[in-house]
Amino acid sequence: MRTPICDQLGIEFPIFAFSHCRDVVAAVTNAGGFGVLGALAYEPDRLEIELKWIDEHVNGRPYGVDFAMPAKYVGQGGGAEATPEYLKTLIPQGHRDFVHRLLDEAGIPRLPDDFEHRAPKAAGLNVDAEGPGQMEVTLGHAGVKMVVNALGPPPKYIVDLCHDNGLLVGALVGSKQHAERQVSIGVDVIVAQGTEAGGHCGEISTFVLVPQVVDAVGPSVPVLAAGGIGDGRQMAAAMALGAQGVWTGSVWLLTQEADMFPEVTENLLAATSKDAVRARVMTGKPARQLRTKWTEAWDRPDAPEPLPMPLQGLLYGEAAERFSRVHDKGFAGYPVGQIVGSIDRVRPARDVVLSMVEEWIDTTERLNGLMDD
Ligand SMILES: Cc1cc2nc3c(=O)[nH]c(=O)nc-3n(C[C@H](O)[C@H](O)[C@H](O)COP(=O)(O)O)c2cc1C
After folding, report:
1. pLDDT by residue (tens digit) across 307-366?
2. How far is it, in rounded angstroms, from Cα 12 to Cα 62?
3. Same domain, yes or no, for 42 and 190?
4. How far apart are CA 234 and CA 194, in angstroms?
5. Alpha carbon separation from 4 to 80, 143, 183 (Å, rounded)
6. 114 CA to middle of ligand 1, Å?
7. Residue 117 located in a structural domain
8. Residue 225 in contact with ligand 1 by CB distance below 6 A
9. Is 211 found in the same domain as 180?
10. SS3 assignment, position 207
11. Of all protein residues, whose CA lies closest to atom 9 belonging to ligand 1?
12. Structural domain includes residue 357
């Protein structure tokens, strides 16, 4: 079963897999889907290494790259007031004290003086400093057939460069108004992402959002359904709603190829759908993530308001250095969607793709059978 986007991109199955992990991207692409590498954490030089590795492992098959360039963030425009060092000075002392108290009370040891800090990474950080370089690297890889952006319309230079080079541009949206705005600036593929989704998300459920977006921008603009899709029944439902394919994220976290801390994997396997909570506490914008001691602490009466992006992400990053160093399970969180409650084992990514396709076909046949009756 194919949809027009399969032919547009040269793929077998309309299954799109977002992952920060190149092994997952390659495995899904090699299984006939479309892997998309989340480039948020990769500065241009590192992105070059990741994309080269993917090229060497997918035998000419197509794949995508995702930038999460927000429409609004502190430090917008770049320059001296957008460096991580400067932005860190904007974090109020009260917030730092709250975090230190929280970690001290939980018995998380302080960092040793000789601790080697890694370069800070956070959504909305280094967008202007690194974006053009990331784009240039991306264009150097012929296997990349689509560039996708989240958190708002992609910057104009991204849309123009993609179109000049024959690449499709996609964008994640959480409402039909956002979809219309994206199409008006030249976006070719809309990912309609419901609130069930892992990571940054809006408030409308996938089941309600997808047909609204399809009605608003389809059929000329392909719509992919995202949020809460983990098996072939959900895929069949997405197609029934008018989507041309499914865009998935959480399901790949529990695959053998995913590069995860073991304590995070354990927490994901144990989680129910109710444990995927939507909060601003990881990045500064609402994102669905695993409930942890971190998310719960920010609900306490003595908690300050989460900071705007990327300040909250910088604060989270500092705390994560402390609790990840000792592999503390109580703080071990991750962005994840409600589908986490349906996944109880770690499988090869290829198996996930193929079982999703089989179940999609079985479900469609079952529904067709109802027509015969
Ligand atoms: C761990 C994780 C990180 C994510 N980071 C991004 C990101 O950087 N850029 C982006 O466009 N979407 C990101 N997303 C959202 C996914 O692209 C996708 O829309 C979402 O996972 C779909 O819903 P699902 O999690 O229910 O499959 C992320 C999702 C997860 C689970």
Report:
1. 999 999 999 999 999 999 999 999 999 999 999 999 999 999 999 999 999 999 999 999
2. 11
3. yes
4. 13
5. 46, 19, 18
6. 34
7. yes
8. no
9. yes
10. helix
11. 68
12. no
- Residue percentage of the chain with pLDDT more than 70: 100
Residues 230 and 265 in one domain: no
Please report whether residue 294 resides in a domain. yes
What sections of 140-261 are H helices per DSSP? 156-164, 176-184, 206-217, 232-240
* Ligand 1 atom index nearest CA of 18: 17
Last residue of a domain, one of 216, 235, 256: 256
- Domain boundaries, position 314: 80-122+260-325
Q: What's the number of domains the chain is made of?
A: 2
Let me know whether 141 and 288 are in one domain.
no
Q: Is 196 in the pocket of ligand 1 (CB under 6 A)?
A: yes
Whether residue 130 is found in the same domain as residue 157:
yes
Task: Return the structure tokens found at 189.
Answer: 């593929």
Q: Are residues 95 and 128 part of one domain?
A: no
| CATH of residue 187 | 3.20.20.70
Q: Ligand 1 in contact with 227 (CB < 6 A)? A: yes
Q: Say how many Å lie between the first and final Cα of the chain, rounded.
A: 23
Do residues 102 and 141 share a domain? no
Q: Quick check: is 102 in a domain?
A: yes
- From 205, 227, 256, the end of a domain falls on 256
Catalogue the long-range contacts made by 97-105 (C-beta closer than 8 Å, 24 or more residues apart).
Answer: 98/297, 98/302, 98/303, 98/304, 99/315, 99/318, 99/319, 102/293, 102/294, 102/297, 102/319, 103/319, 103/322, 103/323
Residue 259, both tokens? 């590069």
Instruction: Estimate to the nearest angstrom the gap between the alpha carbon of 259 and the chain centroid.
Output: 15
Residue 26 shares a structural domain with residue 95? no
Confidence of residue 372 (pLDDT cuts 50, 70, 90): confident
Tens of pLDDT, residues 156-204: 999 999 999 999 999 999 999 999 999 999 999 999 999 999 999 999 9
- Digit-coded pLDDT (tens) for 229-247: 999 999 999 999 999 999 9
Q: Cα separations (Å) of 285 from 99, 152, 169, 308, 309? A: 18, 12, 23, 7, 6
Would you say the CB of residue 333 lies under 6 angstroms from ligand 1?
no
The residue type at 224: L
Shortest-distance atom of ligand 1 to CA 230: 27
Q: Is the confidence at residue 2, as pLDDT, over 90?
A: no
Confidence at residue 373, expressed as pLDDT on a 0 to 100 scale: 66
